[in-house]
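Researcher: Next entry in the queue.
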Amino acid sequence: MRALLVVNPAATTTSARTRDVLIHALASEMKLEAVTTEYRGHARDLGRQAAESDDIDLVVALGGDGTVNEVVNGLLHDGPAPGHVPGLAVVPGGSTNVFARALGLPNDAVEATGALLDALREGSERTVGLGLTSGTPGTEDEAVPSRWFTFNAGLGFDAGVVGRVEQQRERGRKSTHALYVRQVLRQLVGEPSRRQGTITMERPGEDAVSELLLCIASNTAPWTFLGNRPMYASPRASFDTGLDVFGLSRMSTASVARYGTQLLTSSPERGPHGKHALSLHDLSEFTLHSKAPLPLQMDGDHLGLRTSVTFTGVRRALRVIV
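Model: Structure for this entry, 322 residues:
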């Protein structure tokens, strides 16, 4: 087997020595080429080159969710083609690693490498569904390129929090769970329109849902982690179904406290619920519109402001070694 290892040198939880050990372990089991990313989007370019190659069987992403997202978008640049596109393996190296942990992989990079080698020896793999966003025809965002996401995407409040976190990281702050909590609080205080919903959700054959303040599309559960605590905004979301949606139409101080507590105590059996909460399961396609441009995030990556985004759940999109 020939494999490409894409290494993010800025991965927050792996040292250079640990990366060297992991590379040696993987190289003992396969013909391995390791490439270190040098710029934003480099992992995507490497994934695309691997997909266009005739002799790469597997791409291993060593990094956080952002690195995985880039590799996936490179592999699927020309669309899903299970059996023709190289498989994906993940060695978690970020601060949260939602995709890897949702697959059942250990959060420790060394343990995850051991699990990966075991899976390769046993031929253990699965083909997972993914989410795809695109510009909506007839809107100013029509020409925006399509982009895949592995575990979630959001328009509105949560994407604003992601943007704030990225600003702090650009200033040298370390990505920690405490940093995210602080930015949630600052977003609540600093967002002047948080009491008035601007998002409308449309889906084929159904009435529109309007006045949402945030809308999160999940491709799996949990949605994220707070430390080692899993958070289930959409408990039934799965790699084997379409997309699930969680939305809120009110974010007053009392409602934020209520739904925040429900999220902290959520489980695979029960997520946030109430008259101001929207929960939808297994959707194939829907569109979010906003009169005012709102921030968009995918897999924890802030992608700027959008007024209209179409979401599609694509089943059996990519082969993953687990």
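Model: The two ends are 16 Å apart (CA to CA).
Researcher: Noted, moving on.
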